[in-house]
Each structure stands twice: as C-alpha cells, then as structure tokens.
Design a protein that fits this description.
The protein is an alpha/beta fold. It is built from eight helices and ten strands. The strands form two sheets. Strands 1-4-3-2-5-6-8-7 form an eight-stranded mixed beta sheet, sandwiched between helices. It has a two-stranded antiparallel sheet with strand order 9-10. The N and C termini lie far apart (38 Å).
Length: 255
C-alpha cells in the first residue's frame, strides 16, 4: 500500500465523523451504532440518507450542504477516495455529514429497522456479468429492506444504459412503478435541485456525450422479489462483448 494511502487512512482515523469497520467484525455481528446513528452519531432526530458506493463523496457532501435538516452518510470500501469528501465535510464544519468505510454486502449490520429514510446509488458499477453484485439486484434490495423505512425511497443515477434497463425490468417484474423515470436527465430538461449535484464520474460521462439516467422508486414486497428474465445489450463504452443474457428461475432473492 502506498504511503499516500496510509496517510489518508491514518488521517481518517482521527476524523470524528468517519466510521471504519473491519469486515470480520461485522460479517456475522451488528455494529455498535446499529439503530443508534441519530442519538449517538448525529445527536439529532433528523432523517438519515445513505449514499452507497459514494466514491469521493461529492454527492454526500453536496446533499449535506443543501439540506442541513437531514443526516447524510457516504458508504464505500475505498477509503483513499472517501478521504476527499470526508476532509471537505470536516473543513466546512458539516455536522450532518458522516462517512462509513465498509463493504456494502454487510450494510445491514450497521443500520436498524426503519432507521434509514432514503438511499442514493450514484453511478455504481453496472456489474454486467454478475447480477448478484448489482446494487439494484433483488439480493441488495432485500438487504436494504431490512433498514429502509416503509415507503422509503431509492434513487439510482447512472450513465449505464445496461443498469438502467435492468433496473426498470426488475421493477416491472415486481410490479413497482417508478416515481420518476428519466432516460436522459439533462436532455429532457428535468429540473431538480438535488439532481444538479454532479460527481466526478457524472462530469466525465457527460463530457463524452453519454446521457445520464435517473430512477426513483419506493421499495415494497422485498421478501417476494424475483429477478427479471431479460436480455440487455452491454454498454459499448464499458464492454465490447455481445448482448448479456441471464435467466431467473423466479425465485425470491435469497434462494
């Protein structure tokens, strides 16, 4: 590991708004903050919003600036990238912004029943060949349901037509109607203050003329979710392969 990364990890260990947890400690056990983020971490009763796969934390920090009456937590395993957003939040004195360094696979070990109000998925890896690793797969949606409050909202913002199409098919398969569905967020002129925040990757894709897609939906019936049976062409700028096809046996996500 490079000296610069070690320095960033050491710095974040001193940040009061950053939680770094060892995978082995939460694999089969709950973190001490589970169910207590409001009272022990933020020390208020405001809604909690997660950004999963926050990268450099631009969205988490941007949301914290816009909405001081909400609490925001950026989650990622890449601490060296997260360092930027964590440092910006510290320097700006944003008391409603925190960061959690962990794997999203164990996210349910950190948050209690109905503890989270919203989830943002900003430009996640589409995982074109690994359905169970997609952050909008039924596997992950079931995990989110363990701590997302009833009628809690999930936001997906992506450059990937593959992930956008897959997620729409998953919603349709499970009779979930999107609250917002934009295939070309800026080209269609959709106006929303929250969506005006742009991450590093979003700026990159826009510079290449790639439309940004956005889905907003409520999660319900998570225990009965099934994967869609769909064929989707891969993103040409991410993969030169042929169409990707997988078939579900129409089993619940945990089977």
């Amino acid at each position: 590991m490079g000296k610069n990364k070690l320095k960033k990890f050491a710095e974040m260990d001193t940040y009061p708004h950053v939680v770094q947890a060892e995978f082995k400690d939460v694999l089969n056990a709950d973190h001490p903050l589970k169910g207590k983020w409001r009272q022990d971490f933020f020390k208020n009763d405001n809604p909690i919003v997660l950004e999963l796969g926050c990268g450099k934390g631009e969205y988490t920090v941007g949301l914290g600036r816009l909405y001081p009456d909400k609490n925001f937590i950026g989650v990622d395993i890449k601490g060296s990238r997260m360092h930027r957003g964590a440092t910006d939040a510290l320097n700006e004195g944003l008391k409603n912004v925190g960061f959690l360094r962990t794997r999203i696979e164990v996210i349910a070990s950190f948050f209690g029943h109905s503890e989270v109000d919203e989830i943002w998925l900003t430009f996640p890896d589409p995982q074109m060949k690994k359905v169970r690793k997609r952050l909008t797969s039924t596997v992950f949606l079931k995990r989110y349901s363990q701590f997302l409050k009833p009628h809690g909202v999930i936001h997906l913002k992506t450059d990937s037509n593959f992930l956008y199409t897959y997620t729409k098919a998953m919603l349709e398969e499970n009779m979930i109607t999107p609250l917002v569905d934009e295939s070309d967020l800026y080209g269609n002129g959709y106006q929303n203050e929250i969506l005006s925040i742009k991450t590093y990757y979003e700026t990159k894709w826009l510079g290449q003329g790639i439309p940004i897609k956005y889905l907003k939906f409520e999660l319900h019936g998570a225990s009965q979710l099934t994967e869609p049976d769909v064929e989707i062409e891969p993103d040409s700028y991410r993969s030169a392969g042929r169409g990707v096809k997988y078939r579900s046996k129409k089993q619940p996500a945990d089977q």
